[in-house]
Design a protein that fits this description.
By secondary structure, the protein is α+β, with helices and mostly antiparallel strands. Helix content is 59%, strand content 15%. Strands 1-2-3 form a three-stranded antiparallel sheet. Helix 2 packs antiparallel against helix 3 and helix 3 crosses helix 5. The chain is globular, with a radius of gyration of 19 Å.
């Protein structure tokens, strides 16, 4: 009886490992639809977009490249994670024309999807560190 339980546990563990491997292989290829508010001349309207998670390598490389430039760091992350309807990055030129609040909202969504959880205090500390305060 104990052997049967052990075999059952082994099977469940193997299934979980297999699922993790599948998720890791899938990685940043996952595209997730989001909806957010966008200000226009006619008022704020709901808009949808596609985002993808940022890999740890992408995050670390971007952080290293823009360690002293918080604005361009956020834009670079959006350039990686915000996708067009064709699944391609929308481009830094369009990102730079977006309202700051929209950029912050999408950036937060990409961070959440990527497993980068930060509370407000951590965000302020990171901002101060990046800005050299």
């Amino acid at each position: 009886m104990a052997e049967e339980k052990n075999k059952e546990l082994e099977i469940n563990t193997d299934e979980k490992v297999l699922k993790l491997e599948e998720l890791l292989v899938e990685g940043a290829k996952v595209e997730v639809p989001i909806t957010f508010d966008y200000p226009t001349e006619d008022g704020v309207i709901p808009v949808s977009a596609m985002i993808r998670p940022i890999t740890s390598l992408e995050w670390n490389n971007t952080l290293k490249e823009y360690s002293n430039d918080l604005t361009n760091f956020g834009n670079a992350i959006l350039n990686l994670g915000l996708l067009s309807s064709k699944g391609e990055p929308i481009g830094i030129n369009l990102i730079e024309t977006m309202p700051a609040g929209v950029v912050d909202e999408i950036l937060r969504r990409i961070q959440d999807l990527s497993g980068i959880k930060q509370n407000k205090e951590e965000q302020y500390a990171l901002t101060k560190e990046l800005m050299g305060f």
